[in-house]
Amino acid sequence: MTSIRTRLLSILAVATAIVWLCGVSWIALHTQRELDRMLDQRLGEVGRMVNSLLRSGDIDPMVAAGAAQSAPQPTEAGPRNFISCQIWDAEGRLIGRSGDAPTEELATIGNGFADTMVGDQPWRVFAIVDATRGTRILIGDNLQERQGIVRQVILGLVVPAALLLPLLAGLIWLSVSHGLRPLGQAAAALRQRKPNDLTPLAPAALPAEVRPMFQALDALLERLAESRAQEQTFTAFAAHELRTPLAGLRLQAQLAMASGTEAERQTALRHIIIAVDRMTALVRQLLELARLDNDVSPPDRSIDAANLLDDAARGMHPLPCPLQVAPNLRGLPVRVDPGLFSMTLRNLLENAVQQTPAGEAVLCDAHRDENSVIITVSDRGPGIPPEELQHIRKRFFRGRHKTVSGSGLGLAIADAAMRKAGGTLRFRNRPEGGLVAEILLPLGQPAS
């Protein structure tokens, strides 16, 4: 891919050349137009002067023709003396001319201006016909001389341009290099960084054009630093949480091997199964967190909330406590991704079941307003102390009323899944005891 410096230099060089050519073309056309106007005006003045002298009778035709030679001419820097004068009588005889005028008639027109060819030379001619005296005065300019003046003007512009363009190219190169210097400094700073250095670049004196790019890069580095810190914390907590059930498995296996009775062996095996179940749940939750850390958001669609609730309950079978699903939850459509919603329900139900005492039930209810649905999962446990409510969304947080089988990931997974699905998860304590989790979702379209 072409570098920015090369692209800028190419664009500026082409733009400068186009502007210069347009300027030269405009000056050439304007000069040609003004020169034609000025010289036509001079032809008319000379013609009228010669005709005035003839009519006054002060000079004869030969002297009058010579008067054109003595007309005021431009200086050495201007056009040379190229005006020619002819005087013809009514019978078409040349009765007078200037010294440099051709003998061939300049034009056959009456009064006014005309462009003619005399031999192989183009001429601009002004004619005055005096019917009373029977004379016709022709004053002419050689157009090649006029065009030579325009060429000299254009040459005076092109030659300095050819000499100044290399200097202009050098100045453009220096300007572009100076303007791109912050990019080079940032690249050098990034090359010198260590892989674990994710601090913002914060370069000084940034130009306004590149400042948004550096700000976006700093924001990316900040997100990467947060992601790395979160990953390190997650890895440390996961290793700690897995170490406990693994140690328990080893201990129970040793007890089973060393047991002297069948009852002791069965007790040890039962504890092994409990530890395996805990590790299975923990691994599943870790995999769910890994899925939620993916930035790709799945599409949502209208689903029946009660059906997913039943699926989540069947996945936890057998439940240690009954699950009561309110009738108003049946047939209630919500617009959400089924996978994320099922993940949320499963973790909320697991948390509610762990907190609910034996003989009590977990209640799932719902109510709706005009555009949204609020689904609640309520347990009959001790609830969450008010000072811990703000922390229960954190990963691996286990409060005062923690259970043996809990890992501190269920509510964090449920909250992350809802945020990713575009919903909201809220927690509050029941006045009579227990925790209520509220899921706020957009109302879906009823199934046809």
From TrEMBL:
UniProt entry tagged with the keyword Membrane: yes
Catalysed reaction equations from the record: ATP + protein L-histidine = ADP + protein N-phospho-L-histidine
Enzyme Commission number(s) from the entry: 2.7.13.3
Subcellular location: Membrane
Gene3D superfamilies: 1.10.287.130, Histidine kinase-like ATPase, C-terminal domain
Domain Histidine kinase per the UniProt entry, residue ranges: 237-445
UniProt keyword annotations, A-Z: ATP-binding, Kinase, Membrane, Nucleotide-binding, Phosphoprotein, Transferase, Transmembrane, Transmembrane helix, Two-component regulatory system
Topological category with respect to the lipid bilayer: Multi-pass membrane protein
SMART domains: HATPase_c, HisKA
Pfam family of the protein (one): HATPase_c
Transmembrane segments: 6-29, 153-176
Record-level Gene Ontology MF annotations: kinase activity
Top EC class, one word: transferase
Sequence ranges assigned to domain HAMP in this UniProt record: 177-229
InterPro entries: 2CSK_N, HAMP_dom, HATPase_C_sf, HATPase_dom, His_kinase_dom, HisK_dim/P_dom, HisK_dim/P_sf, Sig_transdc_His_kin-like_C
PANTHER family xref list: SENSOR HISTIDINE KINASE YKOH, SENSOR PROTEIN QSEC
Protein's recorded name: histidine kinase
Organism: Teichococcus aerophilus
UniProt lineage: Bacteria, Pseudomonadati, Pseudomonadota, Alphaproteobacteria, Acetobacterales
